[in-house]
Amino acid sequence: MAEGRGVSAEACVGQVVLPGDVLCLPTHPDEDGERLRLGASPAPPTRLLCGPGLRRCDAGLLVTKCGLLRHRQAGGGAYWVDSQQKRYVPIKGDHAIGIVTAKAGDVFKLDVGGSEQASLSYLAFEGATKRNRPNVQVGDLIYGQFVVANKDMEPEMVCIDSSGRSSGMGIIGQDGFLFKVSLGLIRKLLAPKSEIIQELSQLYPFEMVLGMNGRIWVKARTVQQTLIIVNILEACEYMTAEQRKQAFAKLSGN
Fold first, then answer.
1. HSE-up of 173 (CA within 13 Å, CB side)?
2. What dihedral do alpha carbons 30, 31, 36, 41 form, nearest 10°?
3. 39-74 residue pLDDT tens
4. How far apart are the C-alpha atoms of 117 and 178, rounded to whole Å?
5. What pLDDT score does 31 carry?
6. Helix, strand, coil proportions of the chain in percent (round to 5)?
7. Of the candidates 25, 26, 21, 3, which has an alpha carbon nearest to the alpha carbon of residue 81?
């Protein structure tokens, strides 16, 4: 636990940090040329990412939520706080599942589970024009990405990427089951080579949409299979790896 101010961030990785703790970032001696080899060009400076639960300050990183400090080396490095929370705060670049609550002129209002609703323009769909408008009705499920998300502005979502392609975003099918889980479970499911997803794929064929706002949409061949997958995902949050494997083995035997 980081109990004082000015604790090294590397020393706190995997430990519990509390709001108000200040984490010092590692220095780079390469800038002084101490570790540069003769004839070798210096490596370009990498950008350290500050993830959820942390905020940059003069001394380094300021912890804003309680949880376990995590670190990733790839891509220049990133620090974030892994915590169990259900309230979602929109973050730019996050993919989320929203529920259409109203049509306001050329803008749709979406419930994304945050403190306020997000806006979605009818032109933010692939191939949408003033004449060719998307068929979006109140109550539809939308899978999109946040392009504007800060405390001073209304969140704004789009269903296209930088190339104008949908890339899997848009209106989600009418069938299926939508439910909500904690944000920590969503991050586990979205992790590369997630064991839970791999074990589920061996049980039943299904379709799944994961939103960073804690919402999951699932559709299997039958209603019974869909409900089984939903119950398994909800239980995985409180099960160990061994208990999960036993549950999967029991279901596959049936």
1. 11
2. 120
3. 444 445 567 777 778 888 887 888 988 888 888 877
4. 18
5. 42
6. 20, 30, 45
7. 21
